[in-house]
Q: What sequence folds into this?
DNA sequence: AACTGCCCCCCTCAAATTTGGGGGGTTGGA
DNA sequence: TCCAACCCCCCAAATTTGAGGGGGGCAGTT
């Protein structure tokens, strides 16, 4: 397998894709090009708002989108649940569907005509934003697997492009979200868990001074007057959370 | 007008409503009883999750629900925007529809067959959770206004019941969300804005000691080891935010 | 090859602030 | 009556803050 050659085979397409105006257009283009039924882009959060609104772009049929929302299926959908937790793409078939709740979810999906095979691509950018991109078709999982194998790398590129388009759509040209270093995020996260500098130093195996220094620089990067404000802001921006601890 | 007599007129209905198993059943029952086309319950946030998921229960048609989600209409829908900001119920007609964005939103709503008159009821509970309940019908706004006038109080009760059902659905019997006092929330919010105790004392017109005491008790109520952790937790639970400042 | 920026890591010191523990009190609602 | 919210105070110990000072390494640019 030569990923690079596979990509270059579709270079022209990716270029065209990047030129499209919005996420919806990209979704349609990808589906048409690869002859895939459904594609969805789903950004985990939409920071700083008082009202939770997922940023979702999809070409799934209305009935299913409505049902998914109203039934709060995101809570039990293994694709979404593990998609936002894992780092590497995978076939839906390779996920864990053993939970009985997944069963009712799948039944309902089939009832809505959207059962079948799928491919999940998690996206994480340098600013700790998380999204998932899903491709799905109502075809035989075996055939789907071989089809995907050939284009997995290109689909990965497509996912990146979708994400960039979404961020552009949401925040415009300049993306002001501060990029903290991994250590800064770790220290801030531990502080938010109620640990003091001494404890964090032991946990991370570094000096207490260094822990303080990371908190300081994180505070400055976030443009905050106090560390309290930095914790608040970083929490709202979802830069720190319990799984950033280690 | 005698609100109490109006309520008692529908006492039996409200009792039956409380006995229903879930939010969806309540929505259907309310619509049937009052001959209203559409009803929606929308909880602003769904705390502590890494993925933003609105808690929405509605009997709106699928096409419209999908469109609303995919177009991110929540951002421009005056009903949702002012609903989560205001405290008192009002007719949709009395909202501010002057923004040109509202125009395209309304057009699209009409295209989806859901234009018409509506009544918005904001819900805020003691634990600072916010929700909106909306009732809508494709009838003449004048007629709608007189119809609502008669049942406004009962609809308010219905909204309360819907909210209780939703909270029960989400968190089960015991609702562990800590209830901070208004002063505690204020102090915590100001701390999260980067103010120190001295500045907050001046802002709120109380002693510096008192500010500290509020932070202390808030920290204890939230079950946190440090104030940093309290700020983090309160931010995640959406107990503190910029409009809790005054 | 030099430079710049960032990440990573460590340290000092004095001043300011927070913490945890106590002690008061009033008021209004269940 | 009790409880919670609201308000005020003290103190010693611990901690954080702000301002400096170091160091090495890696990646991209000029």
A:
């Amino acid at each position: 397998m030569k990923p690079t050659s596979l990509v270059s085979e579709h270079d022209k397409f990716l270029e065209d894709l990047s030129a499209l105006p919005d996420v919806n257009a990209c979704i349609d283009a990808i589906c048409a090009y690869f002859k895939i039924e459904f594609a969805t882009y789903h950004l985990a959060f939409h920071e700083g708002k008082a009202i939770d609104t997922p940023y979702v772009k999809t070409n799934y049929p209305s009935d299913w989108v409505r049902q998914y929302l109203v039934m709060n299926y995101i809570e039990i959908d293994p694709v979404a649940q593990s998609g936002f937790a894992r780092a590497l793409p995978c076939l839906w078939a390779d996920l864990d569907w053993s939970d009985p709740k997944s069963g009712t979810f799948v039944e309902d999906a089939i009832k809505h005509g959207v059962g079948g095979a799928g491919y999940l691509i998690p996206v994480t950018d340098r600013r700790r934003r998380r999204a998932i991109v899903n491709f799905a078709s109502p075809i035989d999982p075996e055939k789907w697997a071989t089809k995907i194998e050939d284009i997995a790398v290109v689909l990965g590129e497509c996912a990146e492009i979708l994400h960039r388009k979404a961020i552009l759509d949401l925040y415009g040209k300049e993306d002001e979200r501060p990029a903290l270093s991994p250590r800064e995020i770790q220290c801030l996260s531990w502080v938010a868990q109620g640990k003091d500098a001494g404890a964090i130093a032991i946990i991370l195996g570094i000096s207490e001074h260094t822990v303080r220094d990371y908190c300081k620089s994180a505070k400055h990067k976030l443009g905050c007057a106090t560390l309290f404000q930095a914790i608040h802001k970083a929490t709202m921006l979802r830069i720190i959370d319990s799984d950033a601890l280690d």
Q: What stands out?
A: Residues 1-7 of chain B have pLDDT under 50 and may be disordered. Chain B has two domains: 3-171, 182-244.
